[in-house]
Request: fold
Amino acid sequence: MSEDHWAIDLAAAVLAGVIMALITALAAVAVGALVGIAAATAAWTLHELGVVLTVIL
Reply:
C-alpha cells in the first residue's frame, strides 16, 4: 500500500491546485464585477451631474 502513497499525494496536490484555481477565478470575477459596478455608478453620477449643471446653467 505504501507504494501507492505517491499517487494519493499527487491526486491531493492536483485537487488542491484545481480548488485554488477555482477560488482565484471566482475572486477575479467578483473583483471585476465590483469594478464594473463602480465604473457604471461613476459614469451615471457624472451624467446626472452634467444634467443638473445643464439645467442650472
User: Anything to note?
Assistant: Residues 5-56 form the longest helix (52 residues).
